[in-house]
Amino acid sequence: MIRPIARMPALAYRFATVRMAVACLGQAGSSGWWTSSFLSPNGIAIAQYNFPRAAGYAALNATAAAAKRLHDERIGKRRCVHLFRFALADEVLIQSAIQHNGSALVDSMPRRRDDALQVLAAEGREIISVDAGPVQVGTAADAFTETGLSELAKHYLAAFRQDIQCLRYFANVRK
């Protein structure tokens, strides 16, 4: 794992890293949760052609946009947050971490499925079993915390290992 720039909050950088691992695992050609493949070798090559100064940043954000759309369609947008849609202040921190470390993040991007799973295992610190579909794992106040990061990482890790689509979110009201 790459060290974040000193002025970047470490938690935001870690969320960006988990977001990248889930984005890699969920794209077409891997688990196929969404149809885009911007983080594949061909996707990166296209991004380098179109965005030569910020190819990694563009590819990661394009994949995150596809993931966000899937999550929003299945979970909804009202009064809930998930790995690809945080409160504005938290999202700004994550985007800053990606922007300042974009090429380093993409250079460190897992090239193999096992490497991406290892990123999630390191943050999740626990092996669990999950059910498919959207499930609330905490309140919105828990989302951008160490606990929230761990919850998301271990649930996504379990989903990719079990080969099911698991969409976890945080909300103030139980659905």
Describe the structure.
The protein has 175 residues and is mainly alpha-helical. Helices cover 55% and strands 9% of the residues. The chain has helices at 10-26, 41-50, 55-75, 88-107, 113-124, 146-162; strands at 80-82, 133-138, 166-171. A three-stranded mixed β-sheet has the order 1-3-2. Helix 6 (146-162) links the parallel strand 2 (133-138) and strand 3. The longest helix has 21 residues, at 55-75. Mean pLDDT is 88; it is low at 1-8.
Overview features:
175 residues, three-stranded mixed beta sheet, single chain, disordered N terminus
Written as H for each helix and E for each strand, in order along the chain, the element string is HHHEHHEHE
Instruction: Enumerate the strands of the largest sheet in spatial order, edge to edge or round the barrel.
Output: 1-3-2
β-strand amount:
5-15%
Largest sheet: 3 strands, mixed
Pairing-aware structural class of the strands and helices?
Answer: mainly alpha
Low-confidence parts: 1-8
Terminal Cα span: 36 Å
What Rg, in angstroms, do the CA atoms define? 15 Å
Helix content: 55-70%
Counting H and I runs of at least 4 residues, what is the number of helices?
A: 6
The count of DSSP E runs of length 2 or more, i.e. the number of strands, is: 3
Morphology call: globular
Mean pLDDT: 88
Write the layout of secondary structure elements.
Layout: H1 10-26, H2 41-50, H3 55-75, E1 80-82, H4 88-107, H5 113-124, E2 133-138, H6 146-162, E3 166-171
Parallel strand pairs: 2-3
Antiparallel strand pairs: 1-3
Helix pairs in contact: 1-3, 1-4, 1-5, 1-6, 2-3, 3-4, 5-6
